[in-house]
Amino acid sequence: MIQIKNLTKYYGKDQSLFKALDEISLDIRDGEFVVILGASGSGKSTLLNTMSGLETIDGGSISYDGLNIENMREKELTKFRKENTAFIFQQYYLLPHLNVEKNVRMGADLAGNKDILPYIKAVGLEEKRKKFPSELSGGEQQRVAIARALAKKPKVLFLDEPTGALDEKTGRSVLDYIIKLQKEQGFTMIMVTHNANIAETADRIIRMNSGKIVDSTTNNVKKTAYEIGW
Amino acid sequence: MVVSFKNSIKLFGISIMMCCAICVCNMFMNYLIDLKSVEALVDGPAGKALYDAYISTGVVCCACSGGCLSVTSLVMLFFYIKHYIDSHSKQIGILKALGYSNFKIAKSFSIFALSIFIGCLLGYLLSFAIMPMYYHMQNQTDLIPHVNINIHFELFAILVLAPTIAFGLIAIFYSVKKLNQPTVNLIKGITKTKGKNTDSKDKGNFVKEMKSSVLKSRKTLVFLIGLSSFCFSAMIQMSTSMDELASVMMGLMIFIIGVILAFTTLYIATSTVIRFNQKNIAMMRVFGYDGFSCKRAVLDCYRPAAYIGFAVGTLYQFGLLKIMVSVVFKDVANVPDYKFDWPMFFITLGAFIIIYEGIMLIYGYLMRKIPLKQIMDE
């Protein structure tokens, strides 16, 4: 269970001081798929970065199963990330000089996971496992990023606009992979997007505006990646 | 202008290198020209032998220091240009898309010659500060007539203007070659990945894979780190082992040049390694790799190059001094036999291990300070 209480984050200082997150409180259950929805500048990515421990906070608390991370030192945070989280970003951030297998190994090694092939197979890239990122399409690169994240066997998967750089067909396919794998493996998944259609695939939709949660809705009519609009 | 004056100043490593090269070359060449003017006044076989030894020493020193340092500066120039094009590929790609030709863009790289000019000019001027001491030292023998310092302006043209023009032209032509790639690749920042070369055997461990990939992706850096250790090893051992072959001033000069070159090159190479791998390091840390693993993956792969550089430097200085004694000074009386200085070797090796590993630890610590948010901001 992730518990966030009165989370506050500022950027800038003096006259340019800007409140990016304004006393946000939120609970996320284990195995839940939550989409954080909002326009650019609403604070959704900042919320993702702070709740995952990538950014420091200026107020409030973040706890994972009772373990508070907001006051952790860098060494403890690294250990926390190693044992609990994985990330998928809009820009993939694959290591350009390593092939698919070796990129996936980046995640797998941290979990002591020797068998990476099932993860590569799961994202449908078995044939291309010796290819380099520059030899893959955008969708394929994102699937490598998914395999890399999942090979880490995370308890919580954070996704920042994972389909943002993809066309509709590839985007749907990638989203379908992620949802399917989340169902199978049961990890908690927190996805940031500005696309309201994608939110329809989640268990819960949290809407943000100006650093505040303006709405939190349980989605009773979950759709698949192929049923939503784009 | 694609490349600004500020970018040129960043090439201070080349300036330092050229400064050292030209300082040594101008001092020796100026002395050689002045010495040649008194050739007719040299008497007897002993005087002739010493005269020939002075000439040979001057030529060897100019060729070794000037030649090696100029070649290294050239490698560094190529490295900077390639790095600049890689890191500014988007802006350069947009200019190409707008219709700018490769040559027009490449012309702005000639400003890199400014750093050569600054280095050469400083070296040229610095040599005149050292020259009186050097001439005084050389004039202490009675076998050769007293030589006075004369300023030879042709050396300014050869050692300051010519390298500036040559490096400027080389910068332009090398840039044209490097810019000759599809515009879309430049805009998208797509770099050629040579599969076979960069991804050989499966090492079964991510950090080892990363180490191997970092090493293979920038081979110039391997050269620079090896060179840094080479300079440290060769120059320090040479400066301390040649006490009976040359003056204290000569030894001190070699020592200072060695230390400056070693630290400048190591700083340039190591900071470049980290800059190139900033995103990869950040991504590793996002995933939960600790600072030690990141250091192992990115910096430790250069350790063999550093120690090989040290070993080669040791052999080089021994070989060079041995040749100097047995070939150049063979006809000069009272020149002691040169033997390998083991105590100095172990002292230099100890100092090298402490300094190199210490610097790597500091850089490893700095790597942990790379803000993770940086990769999310793009």
Structural class of chain B: mainly alpha
Q: Helix coverage percent of residues of chain A?
A: 25-40%
Query: What strand order characterises the main sheet of chain A?
Result: 6-7-8-3-9-10
Number of strands of chain B: 0
Pair with the most extensive interface? A-B, 38 and 34 residues
Overall morphology of chain A = globular
Range of helix content of chain B: over 70%
What would your notes on this structure say?
The complex is a heterodimer of chains A (230) and B (378). By secondary structure, chain A is an alpha/beta fold. Chain A has a domain at 32-56 and 84-218: 3-Layer(aba) Sandwich (Rossmann fold). Helices cover 31% and strands 28% of the residues of chain A. Chain A has helices at residues 44-51, 74-84, 100-110, 117-122, 138-150, 168-185, 196-199, and strands spanning 2-11, 18-28, 33-38, 59-64, 67-68, 85-89, 156-160, 188-193, 204-209, 212-218. Chain A has a six-stranded mixed sheet with strand order 6-7-8-3-9-10, sandwiched between helices. In chain A, helix 3 packs parallel to helix 5 and helix 5 (138-150) runs parallel beside helix 6. Chain B is mainly alpha-helical and 378 residues long. Chain B contains 17 helices and no strands. Chain B has helices at residues 5-9, 12-36, 44-87, 89-98, 102-107, 113-138, 153-179, 183-188, 195-198, 206-217, 219-241, 248-276, 278-287, 291-298, 303-328, 342-367, 373-376. The mean pLDDT of chain B is 85. Chains A and B meet through helix 2, strand 6 and helix 3 of A and helix 10, helix 13 and helix 17 of B.
